[in-house]
Amino acid sequence: MSDDGRKIRAKARANWTIEKKAVKDLPEIEVIDAPPNVLIALCTQLSLQAWAMSGKPLPTYTRENMPIKVFRPSDNRS
């Protein structure tokens, strides 16, 4: 990822609206009383549907080769 690309995306995010709310002011959420295996199955189903809507194929890389970047609290990210 180029530094110019980073700057362009940062400029685009500069006008994003941010709302700060207390937890007590948030709308109530639906809680599903289900065992963990059911909740994981729901997440899997939602993830597959999201990928399908993107029009992109599912990634085929292995877990060891996943494209990630780890940010530690000690990292200087300025």
TrEMBL record:
<protein>
    <submittedName>
        <fullName>Uncharacterized protein</fullName>
    </submittedName>
</protein>
